[in-house]
Amino acid sequence: MYRVGFPGWKLAARVGIPVIFRVEVMHDLEADVFVATSPDLHGLVAEAKTKDELIDAVYDCVSMLMEELLKKQPKAKPLAAWSGDLLAA
Fold first, then answer.
1. How far is CA 42 from CA 32, 37, 49, 50, in A?
2. Strand order in the sheet with 79-81
3. How would you label 41-50 residue by residue, b for 16+ Cβ within 10 Å and e otherwise?
């Protein structure tokens, strides 16, 4: 696996090497939603009522971002790395 943001990650994704990106999640108490962003994949912002829905929303957003960044879908599905910790809101 190769991390998004490392030199050559776009080439790696284009040729089918699986790429991984870090995800940071917080729970917005006021809105009662989980919000995910990524320090690796700029533009990734997803929110959902539950963690399971958030995972789906993250991958939907990543799919769109990767297609835009690579000018095509990557050959291998990118993987998200989340420690399970919630950041303070």
1. 24, 8, 22, 23
2. 2-3, 19-22, 79-81
3. beebebbbee
Residue with tokens 């939907």: 60
pLDDT digits (tens, 9 = 90+) for 37-84: 999 999 999 999 999 999 999 999 999 999 999 998 888 888 888 888
CB 62 within 8 A of CB 46: no
Q: How far apart are CA 23 and CA 39, in angstroms?
A: 7
Strands 86-87 and 24-28: parallel
Token output for 24: 């940071």
